[in-house]
From TrEMBL:
Region described as Disordered: spans on this chain: 20-41
Record SUPFAM superfamilies: P-loop containing nucleoside triphosphate hydrolases (SSF52540)
GO molecular function terms listed in the Swiss-Prot or TrEMBL record: ATP binding; ATP hydrolysis activity
Keyword ATP-binding among record annotations: yes
Source organism of this protein record: Miniimonas arenae
Domain of life: Bacteria
Name listed for the protein in its UniProt record: ABC transporter ATP-binding protein
UniProt cross-references to InterPro entries, sorted A to Z: AAA+_ATPase, ABC_transporter-like_ATP-bd, ABC_transporter-like_CS, ABC_transporter_ATP-bind, P-loop_NTPase
Database matches in Gene3D superfamilies: P-loop containing nucleotide triphosphate hydrolases (3.40.50.300)
Top-level taxonomy: Bacteria, Bacillati, Actinomycetota, Actinomycetes, Micrococcales
Keyword Endoplasmic reticulum among UniProt keywords: no
Protein keywords: ATP-binding, Nucleotide-binding, Transport
Limits of the ABC transporter domain: 35-262
Amino acid sequence: MSAATALPVTITGVRRAFPVPASRGGRADRASRSVRRGTTGGTVPAERIVLDQVDLTVEPGEIVAVIGPSGCGKSTLLRLLGGLDTPSAGTLRIGDQIVTGTDTRTAIGFQEPRLLPWRTVAQNVALGLPRGTPRSERATRVAELLELVGLTASADLRPRQISGGMAQRVSLARALARRPGVLLLDEPFGALDALTRLRMQEELLRVHAARPTTVLLVTHDVEEALYLADRVVALRTVSDGEHSPVSDVAPSVVRVLDVPGARPRDRADARLAELRVELLEGLGVVTHHVSGASEPYPAI
Ligand SMILES: Nc1ncnc2c1ncn2[C@@H]1O[C@H](COP(=O)(O)OP(=O)(O)OP(=O)(O)O)[C@@H](O)[C@H]1O
Ligand SMILES: [Mg+2]
């Protein structure tokens, strides 16, 4: 099977605001605006800014992890990249094309595997193949993908007959089936136990090494981000759930961190442990770490 052509991702000045329902008050503030029109006296609906001034370039084949507090817009960013949502301002590009809708060059892996229960493992993977793949090629491609994620022996099982980790691997194989230039993964291992999660991280690195593709990985796990990614992007919450600002509306991205060391990384690497503490403290977690080495950065 030929290697995927990893594509660059360019995000420029992206903003995503959602209207605030009038029944919820729509109170105006710096993050949710209700603008009074001078001459007519009318108002435009209040809006809640979820993402603002997002600028990010991801190189072909790079793995970028996106972290940040719950509700800060991580999934929204992936949905925008996957063409499942539209930005209020700014542009997102895959390769040199602006994202205007779903794109066969992009694959999304959701937090839950979303398998069809009445189909076998192999049939679920086949669902990811591009439309028009010749019948003769389909079986070979599915067999290769199952081998890639270590599920050859489980090809004929149904989703209820496999474990959660296996289901996640089926989901990953299905996402890879279209040979995506960009793979968008939203908390792909979030539902797994700690050990399976570590194994799946290795699996992802193995698959990435075998078939390089650009990966944007949303995760709540800072350690996972530092273990897998070339860079970690930290987002902040621009406005909270009550439509009031927690800060001035400022760029959503508060930190872009280059992760040192080539993969596979030593999980006990002292530099990664320091960075983990630094990122966790940026997320507001008390780490009880005593160090004079790391510079504080603006709270997320
Ligand atoms: N279609 C929508 N309409 C209105 N608000 C939305 C919509 N989609 C998302 N939001 C709001 O945008 C905010 C960010 O949502 P998003 O799902 O991107 O967060 P997240 O960072 O992925 O959070 P989590 O870590 O909990 O998954 C949330 O407060 C959510 O309520
Ligand atoms: Mg989310």
